[in-house]
Design a protein that fits this description.
With about 700 residues, this protein is an alpha/beta fold. It folds into four domains: about 100 residues, PriA, 3(prime) DNA-binding domain (GIY-YIG endonuclease, 3-Layer(aba) Sandwich); about 190 residues, P-loop containing nucleotide triphosphate hydrolases (Rossmann fold, 3-Layer(aba) Sandwich), CATH 3.40.50.300; about 180 residues, P-loop containing nucleotide triphosphate hydrolases (Rossmann fold, 3-Layer(aba) Sandwich); about 90 residues, Alpha-Beta Plaits (2-Layer Sandwich), CATH 3.30.70. It is built from 19 helices and 29 strands. β1 and β2 form a beta hairpin. α1 packs across α9 and α5 crosses α6.
Length: about 700
Amino acid sequence: MLQPETPAPRYAQVIVDVPMPQPLDYRIAAGADVVPGALVVVPVGRRRQVGIVVATTTHSAIAQSRLRDLGPALADLRVSDSWLELCRFAADYYHFPWGEVALPVLPPALRRVPSARGTRRRGAAAAPADGTHATTTTDDGRAAAAAAEMAPPLRAEQQAAIDAVCAASGFAPYLLFGITGSGKTEVYLGAIARMLERAGAAAAPQVLLLVPEINLTPQLHARLSQRFPRHRVVSLHSSLTPTERAAAWMEAHQGRAQIILGTRTAVFASLPHLRLIVVDEEHDASFKAHGGVPFSARDLAVKRAQLEGVPVVLGSATPALETWHLAQSGRYRLLVLAQRASTGGQEPVIETIDLQRDPADNGLAAPLRDALEQTLARGEQALVFINRRGFAPVLRCGACEWLSKCPRCDTFAAYHKVGAALRCHHCGWNARVPGACPDCGNQDLQGVGQGTQRVEESLRRLWPQARIARIDRDNTQGARGASRAGAAFDAVHAGEVDILVGTQMITKGHDFRRVTTVGVLNADAQLVAADFRAPERLFAVLMQVAGRAGRAGQASRVLIQTRYPHHPLFAALSRLSFEAFAAEQIDERRAARMPPFVHQALLTAAARTLEQAIDFLRRCRELQEGLETPAGVTLFDAVPMPLARLASESRGQLLVEAPRRADLHAFLNAWLPLLRDLGNRGVLRWGIEVDPQSI
């Protein structure tokens, strides 16, 4: 009698959030239905974790005695092959384990191991959390039609941009280069509308819209909900509660949300029916992650569009020079909006105030004070921008020259008059302001320099009758920071504020219709910075802040206080000519062999002492000698980081660069495994950052 055939054993390859270069093998129980993309519970060491199955196989190189059983699957949680491929690409490109990319980008609530009493997890509740999407309307759509925001008439160049994006077949990268106030958002909305209305799709199309800052989401979410009342809109960002975040993520994952608005981590949202990706303010440094995997959401958005075979639109008035170079060389298609959206309007007049001739009094030079006085007299709004929060960057003793240094960093603790605190804006250290100098006992301590709180105080003293508001991270922090910021911006839009003071938070994407005067303080800090990207960042932020003025067509002025009024950057800015600025910067970068003409990776090390960090990096550099290094790959000397001591740790860095991206990655693939086998000798941790934004 024939014996029944014993089924071949099956194994699952699972990625988990641990520093393992390869997936882990687990034994699949006989008859179990396990598919790639499933979220499962697996034992890892002495703990259980949520992992993702990436493959199944009938062979395992692990001895049977060492194999462990695959745990239960989590119901309704299977990610797509293209999502896994995006995470795998990010892991390979940034040289991190696959699981350390894929698991942390899931909402925290979905990564929790269920209790023993309920090993199978339901999907997140179908009911939306407050604020995560628009309310649906009646079946006949009459309420939706009544509530829909009317799209304004489009200019020919806007319509041409929409037509180009929507005519794309498959992957197509576009740079939408539009001056501030030219109506880039209307191009986004027009393209989204066309994508959502396409007939014949098996399921409702989805669109991903990325923005750089959380505080931009409330206003844009409301606008999307008004424009598209028949479609669900969800927001994904870190200010949501875990329940809200999981609910929004599940709505996108299940295809019930069609418009997904989010910050950088939303590039990893599970979107089974993705048809368009838009990255607004693509140049913004906030799209680069810090801590964990240092990925660029902008670059991964382009890669995701390629994997999904859909168009991607990168929008900016001041594109990153890497993006601009790709458009100029034909790799990206350039779409230009050269006119402001407001009819009959005029560009703001850009002026510099020479602080050598007109010194500032409490942060404000006489020409700026006069301009603000005239603006208030006309009943218009003004904006004062300074990219330093707090009252003053440092507290000083006039008797012995004591300065309020952070005890954990190589920097100063800023003086915050509100709350009477000293705070380090790098490591978070804070303390009460001392009643007297810790060194000599002098009680006359003075704040040196300007911060948003001090500027606000000066403005209130000059114009006590004016309605003055301040928006920065100090008064918009916490779990509901985005909501508080949204309420503050709503007050500005409603005309309830005469002068708005703030940091970069007030410069991005806000359509202030009543602002006619903009003052810029402390622009020179970035102008003289050592970082080669500093001029690019300064030009971008000045163009952004200038773009807040005169958006309704009024005559407007932008006054920039500086000690270097004849700097070429200000000459290009006065003409509102990004093209002139970019051409000069590109020539300088080409001559100096800097990005985009070379590709870079930065190895960093943190240790108890700087000597330990530098010694480790030197030993890493010496490992190159045993490798066949591709031609052109250069390893520079180990040096301290610009902020060498941070949070009681000393830090060093070593730059690697190559003219060809493939050569850089080939070297890193051979070099990094050797570093992992190198003894640390007091080094607390080290890491690699591909395409670093600061050196």
